[in-house]
Structure formats: C-alpha cells, structure tokens
Amino acid sequence: MEPIEKLWHTAYHFESCYEVWFYGKYVGLKSDNIREEVEEMTKTIYKLTKSLTTNPFAKRIAEQIRLKIDKFRVYIPILESICRQGLNERHWEQISQELGEKIYPKKYPSLSTMVDLDIVKIQDTLEEISNAAGKEYDLNMQLIKMQDEWKDMRFDITRYRDSDVYILASLDDVQALLDDHVLKVQAMRGSPYIVALGKRAEDWEHKLISMQDILDVWLKVQATWMYLEPIFGSEDI
User: Fold this and answer.
1) Closest Cα partner for 201 from 130, 129, 137, 142?
2) Are 52 and 59 in contact, with CB atoms under 8 Å apart?
3) Among candidates 111, 102, 27, 113, which has minimal Cα distance to 77?
4) What pLDDT was estimated at residue 237?
5) Measured between alpha carbons, how far is 106 from 101 in angstroms, rounded to an integer?
6) Measuring CA to CA, how many Å separate 73 from each of 40, 42, 116, 119?
7) From residue 180, how far is each of 40, 99, 168 by CA, in Å?
8) What Cα–Cα distance (Å) separates residue 228 from each residue in 177, 221, 232, 234, 235?
9) Residue 14 buriedness (CB in 10 A; 0-12 / 13-18 / 19+)
10) Cβ-based neighbours of 117, under 8 Å, separated by 6 or more
11) CB contact set of 146 (below 8 Å; sequence gap of 6+)
12) Confidence of residue 161 (pLDDT cuts 50, 70, 90)
C-alpha cells in the first residue's frame, strides 16, 4: 500500500498547491521554493509510474497527475519572472509595451490571468526585463545594507594624557569598513544595471572617499599636534 499512499499524498499536495500557485495571487509567492517542490513531485510521480506497473488503475492516475504537473512546469519560468523582487511600475510599463496590453499586478493578480493574456508569447523578453529588475533590486539592497552598517559605527576617543583634550583612538574597524565599502561601491558602479539607482551610488562613493580624505588629514594633524604639544606645553617654552 505504500506506493498507493504516496500517490494519494502527492496528488493531493499538488492539487492543493496548484489552486494557490495558478489561481491565487502571485505577489508574495516564493517561486524558487515552488520550482523545488514541483521538481520533487515530478521525481516522485515518475518513480510511482514505474513501480505501479502491476496496478493499471493506480498507474493511470499517476500518469494523469504527471501530465498535470508537466503542464504546470511550463509556466514556472513565467511565475519566476512575475514574482521577481524589484519589479516596479517602470518594468511593468516595459512588459505592457511588449505585450501590447496594459498589465500590472492589481489588474491581473494571478498566473492564470497572465496565461489568458498569452504572456507566454513574450516569455524571453519578460525574462530579460525581470532579470534586469532583479539585478537592480540586488544593487539597491547592497547599497542600503552598506548604509545601514554605518548606523552603529562609532569613533573611539580617548583622553590625551592628563589633559582635557580627547583624541581619536583605534580606527581599525572604521578604516576596514571604509576600504571594504569603497571597493564594493566601485564594483557596483561598473554594473550596467546601476543606472536604475540614479546618482545614489555615485553620491555614496563620494561620501566614502571624502570620509577617507577627512580621516587621513585628521590623523596627520593629530599626529603633528601630539608631537608638538609636549614641546609647547613645557614650562621651559
């Protein structure tokens, strides 16, 4: 009974998920997880069709489920494209122009409505636009992550000898983060997808480089002052 039970559970799981994946709202769906689940179900059904040769009725059911899964697999690239993080109004305008139909998630909220529009005919272009949106999104998230890493960064200061003057202490963490971020933002600016961020990446690079220059000058002035202070602070001078 084990193959029969596995067939029943697989069929039930697919039919339940299919209602959500095909007819439900695609916004918020994890397309990568869906692909993994469908691939796993495909393997299971394929094995079952081989092991149920002595049970014609069960084998026929397994083949019917396999056909349904295979039919849905055709639309997974479409689902991955329309579920891509980073798709915004500008990208939907590009998709609409290619399709010749005004299209956006609120008007066509499910995969089934997209299929009814025959979006498959622009699948290649859709994937290009979606991939570009994903690259732009990743760059934007990298920039946000870098900026967030500075929120809790503090300069360590220490009292200079017995005076009321404070000087910069160890700057290893600050310098390491600066160097790392300058390299990252320069690599980002070499991407063809950086245009979508406007001047944000360029402005961020200028801030980082300015901070480096300021710290360099600051440390030079501080070192010179620390060298001269004992001389001019002496009672003999």
Assistant:
1) 142
2) yes
3) 111
4) 59
5) 14
6) 12, 9, 16, 15
7) 40, 43, 21
8) 31, 10, 6, 10, 14
9) buried
10) 99, 101, 103, 108
11) 181, 184, 185, 204
12) confident
Q: Does the reported pTM lie above 0.85? A: no
Measured CA to CA, the distance from residue 227 to residue 112 in angstroms comes to: 75
| Cβ neighbours of residue 162 closer than 8 Å, sequence gap 6 or more | none
CA 32 to chain centre: 12
- Chain centroid offset of residue 85 CA: 7
* C-alpha to C-alpha distances, 221 to 103, 104, 216, 228, nearest whole angstrom: 60, 58, 9, 10
**Residue 168 bridge partners (DSSP):** 157
**Interval 2-52: pLDDT, tens:** 889 999 999 999 999 999 999 999 999 999 999 999 999 999 999 998 888
Q: Which tokens is 22 given?
A: 């095909």
- Nearest 10 degrees: Cα torsion 77, 78, 83, 86: 90
Band of the pLDDT at 136, cuts 50, 70, 90? very high
SS (HEC) of 14-50 = HHHHHHHHHHCECCCCCHHHHHHHHHHHHHHHHHHHH
- Using left for φ > 0, alpha for ψ between -120 and 50, and beta otherwise, residue 165 falls in beta
Best CA proximity match to 119, nearest among 143, 133, 102, 135: 102
